[in-house]
# Entry
Amino acid sequence: MADPMRIRAQAAGDKTTVRVLMSHEMETGQRKDASGKLVPAWFIQEVTAQLNGKTVMTAQWGPAVSKNPFLQFVVKGAKAGDKIAVTWVDNKGDKRTDEATVS
Amino acid sequence: MNARRKMLSDSARVAVALAAAGWLPQAAFAQQAGAWNKAAFDAKTIADLMKAMGGATPAESKDVTLTAPDIAENGAVVPLGASTTLAGVKTLLILVEKNPNTLAASFEVTDAVEASVSTRVKMGQSSDVYAVALTADGKALFAKKEVKVTLGGCGG
# Structure
């Protein structure tokens, strides 16, 4: 199971900046290991962000996104105490959800 | 070109052809969470990608902003941001033209978030980077910038 994400959501006025740091290898499938075999691709395909249980943004990622991906987006109308949840699903079907409170 | 690469590019071409013929419900497919848009991520060129996304030919626009460094020392971690002031944007794409697959990431935004996202991507070599905004009325607008990479992020 993958390591937890680090999520920080900071409100400034009616805008909340959410920064997410995920822990994932993001293997492209183009790299070769020491014996010359291709390392199979392993990367996050879908990311979903929810505000208080309502989906506000979804993303589809390719293998070009960096290892241990960083994501920043701005949510409108969130208040301190609201819950931001971020879920990712990778190409092996693994998934992880983490939640943070807007401060 | 080895067999695997050929197979991949052939299947991408078939998928694009199918999409063009209207056999795949491409527009709905791209919007639906839970369905990764394989055709779009397999696209090797911007023209192929726009076909796969079902969008129009992109036009350059001042209303789309791409945040990218002039020089990236490490191609494995290049911070990129895409944002737009346009109303009615439903999808933001981040493209790296000379990567093996052009599309790096796509973000479907709703009314509850600003059309502004940043992330980090890998770049194999110096290349033009595009931020593309697809609007609800079918327009595609982009901003581009050249990013020079000192150390490539693929393989090595």
The first strand of chain A starts at residue 6 and ends at 12. The beta strands of chain A are 6-12, 15-21, 44-51, 54-61, 70-76, 83-90, 95-101.
